[in-house]
Amino acid sequence: MEYITRGVCGQEGCRERRYYLDNGLWFCRRGHQQEGRQVEEDPEDFGTQGRTSRVKKAVSEKSKKTYTGRQAYRLFLQVYQLILWKQCYALVHTRGFPPQFEDVVRDLWALWLGTFEDKIKELGDDDEPEFFSSQATTGLDEEDEAKKTKGRKAKWPRLIDCIALWYLGAFLMRIPVNVADFHRMVLRDEVPYIRVVRIVPREMRDKLPQEFISILETTKIPQPEHIHSAVSDFVLFYHGKFDMKFPALNWPVLLYRFIKRLALPIEIYPAVKKLQHLLGFTFEYPTRIIGRRMPINFPELQLIALIVIATKLIFPFDRRIRHPCSAKEPAVQVIDWGLWTQIQGHFDNRETARGKLGKGNEIKVSEKDVFDMTPSQLDEYMAWYENSWIDTNRSLNPLAELFPLGPGAGASRAGTPSVEVDEEEAIDSMVQIATGQLQSRPTIPDNESDSDTKRPGSYYTRYRTEEYLPENARSFYEVTAKVVGVSLTTLLRVVLQAENKVTRWLEEQRRAELFGESYPVYNEESPGEMDLD
To answer: Labelling 58: which of 186, 203, 488, 529 has CA 20 to 30 A away?
Structure first.
């Protein structure tokens, strides 16, 4: 008899594992009939036992999970456009930008988008994506390609180009917003930028190759100087490709904002206007670059350089006593630079002084900082991490509800409105304290002065590098560099170049007095521009 080995019988403690078939019924070797096991044999179906029949399924075409070639590039541009629209929407509805701002940025994007059509046509359907960085690769002092004078060649958008488009949109609408303002919005997460891929729908993200997703990831904090460079590249591109004319910087309003933020006396305003006329600054972006790109060609840096020079002329950092001729001169006032430094420090630490981490500081936290953080700061950091890095579009695990993460994004942000000090009120308070501490110095008329009398503007000091900065000057330069969005080294270089222009103007005035000749004001766009270090 033929036996088949299976599981344990189990009836009446039987441990038999061998079975045989008898008249369609299964029995173990010891004779226990197995319930539920029956085989009916049909003589007409002789020889069909063991045959397997499978139901044919409908043929469905399998689609690729990720796109390649032209499809991938077109989808990337669509995703980039979606991100740009969401960012503009946040600027309008959160930051109070005018509704027309979206239309201006959309038109700028449409012009740039048209340049990618020819490049997409050159690609094949299965071409692999090119590897390129999402971060800015050019600095303020790097050498530019010759092609940039005729318009920037078409290249794939970087994430930092979004900020440049915001700035140009505000620039065209004469909105007094500078590069540092947009940079601060990014760090404070007021505009989607950090981990921006989280706002892209899952269906679109799944079809993008990883190379494109890496472009939209923020691997490092964007630097304001890179934003300045990106804006300059766009101006060259739009002018060279479409002959677009950009207006001058809305410098009167921006000048007032800079003076107010630096808590300087209002007498700086007319002094800057005189220096601007003297040096011939137009506060316009250059439409062509000869030689190396220089930071002094950027309108915001021209304006901040004039503010620094005017401050050094009227309110010097040294302790020399200079006597003005009359009480009507702006130099009759004296700034206590030590007190000014303390006021600026209190303004910068207005949030952290209350025991909070401070908006915009979360992304700067390192491993070492965690050990010194208080429980409330840890909660604030973890809430920011949840809002910025956890993907809410991904399908949740059924067990995720058993491990709640705490309050959501809206609750964590809306729960601390009283802690955030209004920036405008803080600036007004800072200006009131700084101007209230101004002192006056004695005046000496011309008929009472002698050869030893020092006048305002005398003993003017120029600083080439950071090593030469005294304590008070370093504090002022550092705060000013942060306000305009450049490094301390770049600000020193820009101010030094502007001071050299003033020196050349003085020399030309002396020649005119001696020889009766007049010399034109030196233009910063002249081909003979010196590259001073």
So the answer is: 203
